[in-house]
Amino acid sequence: VFENFSLANRAFFSCVDLYFAPSEHLGGLITANYAQTDVQMLGYPSFDKFFAYVEHHPIRKDKKILWTPRWSYDSEIGGSHFLEYKDKLIGFKQSHPNIFMVIRPHPLMKGELINKGLISKAEWDRFRETLRQNDIVYDKEKTVDAALLDADILLTDFSTIMPMFFMLDKP
User: Fold this and answer.
1) Mind listing the pLDDT tens digit for each residue in 26-61?
2) DSSP secondary-structure letter at 167?
3) Angle at CA of residue 86, ends 156 and 53, nearest 5°
4) Which of 66, 58, 128 minimizes the C-alpha distance to 103?
5) CA distance linking residue 147 with residue 140, whole number of Å
6) d(CA 17, CA 13)
7) Residue-by-residue DSSP string for 93-106
8) C-alpha to C-alpha distance for 109 and 139, rounded to whole angstroms
9) Collapsing DSSP states into helix, strand and coil, what is residue 160?
10) Residue 105: how many CB atoms within 10 A of its CB?
11) Cα dihedral 164/165/166/167 (nearest 10)
């Protein structure tokens, strides 16, 4: 996408004097096409820890599945499939008791679902108890980084965490 943007927008990039490149590849494109632009290779700082992880961690034989459902059912911003899949994923865990499963919903999800009347507080509490009974971990850490680094498989709706997980070279 960026390659098309940078090469098709000559008017924009002809005015760029300094470009902070997220990769050698994109920096090379700018250098090759806009010689007047000073290109600095800075990488993508939020991805650095994920690159480092891949270099130092072998793939495990026991698989940990991380499910990160989106918080909003608003289709304009990506939507969610939490209510459609929550029971199916619990059922999957019940039929595969040897897998390790973690759910890490967005911190805003519970309030959003309850406030919109999509689920009651009592239903949410029953869901949390069902997770506990089925040895499914409910991760409520402040950041998602540790969960992504520890997971082998990511199940997610459209999310900004996908590129971070892709950098770990995992499915």
Assistant:
1) 778 888 888 777 888 877 666 666 666 656 665 555
2) T
3) 35
4) 66
5) 10
6) 8
7) HHH-TTSEEEE---
8) 13
9) coil
10) 20
11) 60
